[in-house]
Amino acid sequence: FISSGINAEYGDITDSDNVRGFAAAAGVPDPEKLFEFSRGPEARQQLIDNTKEALDSKCFGAPWITVTNPATGRREKFFGHDRIEMIGWVIGKEYKGHTPPPPL
Questions:
Q1: Do 54 and 64 touch, CB atoms closer than 8 A?
Q2: How far is Cα 73 from Cα 64, in angstroms, rounded to an integer?
Q3: What is the C-alpha separation between 58 and 6, in angstroms, rounded?
Q4: Cβ atoms within 10 Å, residue 75
Q5: pTM exceeding 0.70
Q6: Confidence of residue 101 (pLDDT cuts 50, 70, 90)
């Protein structure tokens, strides 16, 4: 949901109210709980771990998405929001298109 704000320019992703709005528009069950979690030590450690994993896998941009093919166990790496349809194919889910949230 954050990438919708970045790519479609719906608002400043550093503004906490916008982030809450993106989360609500994306159907996150409890945006406030997610927002509070994101500011805690567990989320901070996950960010550190994810950053290390991205750098170790030669990440060269954002969004950088790594998915595991459930049929083969093989990890696939994708760069760019225009690869979402391909990611769906790898994980066996149909991509039905992007519906951005309304402007805030």
A1: yes
A2: 19
A3: 22
A4: 11
A5: no
A6: low
